[in-house]
């Protein structure tokens, strides 16, 4: 497919998000949960957050997509994630998994493995350190950001890792970084939008997963959905930087949500830098 | 009472909120809790959030109002809500209850029933689907927004439902929607302010309950308090839309808090569309 | 040391925060946790929030500073705070403790005592009511703000209280208020920046503790680190008030984060009002 064809497809999904308003169930961290809810609304979907095990499955059963994010995992919510994930598989709705900080603690490592063993994932989205952890490679992460060591192999090594993960887990894998890689194991896209200011506000990764979840709630084409969610975030970052970067990171963050709320197929087509590998 | 008299009364309560700065204890959801705290400060009251059962009653005992919101209820905080609610009844302070998502899961339904059985509520605030659930009617909610089916009966049906709930629970019931209905079972007010953009940011319902709680902390007239809290939110929405809607939902949200922080008896009198039914 | 020398030292630490990007582990409240993460990023450090007892020590072990904040403490996170605090002592990284609402409930009082008994603190930061509670004095707090009664003794009484606490706990004590007091028990600084608008948004105290934690992650001079964190917050408040106070508290809050993200040694030197007692 040409870049134009990819972007037409992605733009079409965005329009479906806006018209269908899919309900996107999140079990996510309490640091950025408000941002996730607002970005989900901004793109046109409808967020719901319900993490008690007494209702996690019920809420999943009425949703169109499920986003699992282990940013502030705890014993209670880990079990809810598993229950919700299994319900999503049963109901047949997509699961987006964001293994925040995988590699940084034994609890995160163990939980990441459990979720991947017990739940069928549609899209795995993380930074390179997190995806390398999933791939079984030695990850050098210190915290929730990708480590520099992990990036030394360059784009090709990252692509190989993502493809291997996708093949093993039969899912779309999205590695976000300076260049984003999205692959289903066979087809691979490079996305080259974005600005450094995005790492100056918390939750841009989490919000990106929420956007991917919103897209997934409106299509069965998860490769394009993942690319669409990521492009919306990174293009919004560019637009926000143009408008507000000089003002500071508070204004940038407001402008970021603004730009997502005004995102359109036209803006995507105009600004997206997408190459098929 | 004429519209002018209602608004003078409501404006007077707003001024009392600003001078008395009532402490408003919230046990609420973690998605919008920061917005609830900021909107409580913006209207001039003082927020405190304490949900551990080991202190829920102590904190309620030093507060002027209690807001219970089940947006992200869990086994631990449900018990704290009950303890805090009973303490509020004992101390004699008003309880505002926001049954977020009642009808969407069995846990929410059961919890809503338990709170209404064990705690005397002063103001019940929700969307039509939530209030219909409390009324024992068949609610079609899918998530945390009111369903379209539930609105088909029109304004009169919604008013009848609200009045029946108020009579049964001996409380003020506020149904927020395109037209807001506030009733104590006998007297009923229609409030016609607001803009669609309010549903484009998360937590406007929760913030509305916080404002109602802030008003309730400064008066014993809960009908006017509920109307006042709702009017502040919906008029702030109009002012925010005038200033920021074109920019996007991030800027709208900032302008919304701005407008609440600058709300006055004069603005209320000038803009409020209030009719007694 | 002259004011100029103090500010050169503090400016130097700020530059180290920006270049070293210390990882600052927070176990904090869910009301303002997003603000804490964003302000930590804004000053140039890297936030991580992990409160499950299964990983609290692991995450502390890879961090450069630990911030403990009991704003919404609960049975689960109290234990995690103790485990993380002990790990911080073992690893040799500084612990900043913010006893939010100490004096307001028996749970907060008991937890404050336990943390101070079991964990060696580097910096204690609170309002006067909280610090008076730690000092064993009768605190009149009602909620999370300092009470007026507690302030009646004036600046000198507050300074004596802070110095006594510092000597007993062998830590830096920072009492924030109209005038901020920072002391290691021997040397004492008065900081006179800030604006009343800072108390119109939630979490400015919590954010201040995050900034102190960020500074502490880049130096072993905790007295200057505490002063630096506080000055960044209060000067940012002044800059935000100049830019946005007329707009309302929503805009003020955005401008506050902007100002922290643009803070520099030059701005500190130009605006800081610092006196050694």
How does this structure look, described?
3 copies of one chain form a homotrimer. Chain A is an alpha/beta fold and 277 residues long. Chain A has a single domain (3-276), classed as Ribokinase (UDP-N-acetylmuramoyl-L-alanine:D-glutamate ligase, 3-Layer(aba) Sandwich), CATH 3.40.1190. The first copy, chain A, is 53% helix and 13% strand. The first copy, chain A, has 12 helices and 9 strands. A 9-stranded mixed sheet of chain A has the order 2-1-3-4-5-6-7-8-9, sandwiched between helices. In chain A, α1 (3-20) packs across α10 and α6 packs across α8. The longest helix of chain A is centred in the C-terminal third of the chain and has 23 residues, at 222-244. The N and C termini of chain A lie close together (11 Å).
Briefly summarize what is shown.
3 copies of one chain form a homotrimer. Chain A is α/β, with parallel strands linked by helices and 277 residues long. Chain A has helices at residues 3-20, 33-43, 56-61, 75-91, 106-118, 128-134, 148-151, 154-169, 204-216, 222-244, 249-261, 265-271, and strands at residues 23-27, 46-49, 65-69, 95-98, 123-126, 172-175, 180-183, 188-191, 274-276.
């Amino acid at each position: 497919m040409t870049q134009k064809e990819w972007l037409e497809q992605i733009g079409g999904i965005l329009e479906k998000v806006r018209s269908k308003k899919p309900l996107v169930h999140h079990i996510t961290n309490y640091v950025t949960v408000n941002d996730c809810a607002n970005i989900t609304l901004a793109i046109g979907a409808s967020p719901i957050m319900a993490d008690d095990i007494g209702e996690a499955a019920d809420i999943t059963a009425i949703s169109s997509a499920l986003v699992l994010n282990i940013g502030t995992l705890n014993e209670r919510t880990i079990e809810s994630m598993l229950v919700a994930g299994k319900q999503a598989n049963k109901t047949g709705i997509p699961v987006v998994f964001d293994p925040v900080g995988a590699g940084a603690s034994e609890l995160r490592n163990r939980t990441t493995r459990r979720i991947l063993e017990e739940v069928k994932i549609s899209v795995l989205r993380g930074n390179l350190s997190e995806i390398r952890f999933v791939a079984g490679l030695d990850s050098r992460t210190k915290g929730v950001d990708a480590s520099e060591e992990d990036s030394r192999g360059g784009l090709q090594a990252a692509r190989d890792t993502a493809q291997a993960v996708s093949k093993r887990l039969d899912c779309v894998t999205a590695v976000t970084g300076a260049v984003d890689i999205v692959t289903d194991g066979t087809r691979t896209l490079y996305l080259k939008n974005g600005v450094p200011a995005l790492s100056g506000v918390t939750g841009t990764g989490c919000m990106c997963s929420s956007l991917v979840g919103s897209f997934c709630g409106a299509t069965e084409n998860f490769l394009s959905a993942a690319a669409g969610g990521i492009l919306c975030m990174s293009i919004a970052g560019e637009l926000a930087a143009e408008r507000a970067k000089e003002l500071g990171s508070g204004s940038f963050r407001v402008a970021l949500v603004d730009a997502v709320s005004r995102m359109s197929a036209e803006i995507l087509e105009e600004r997206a830098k997408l190459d098929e590998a």
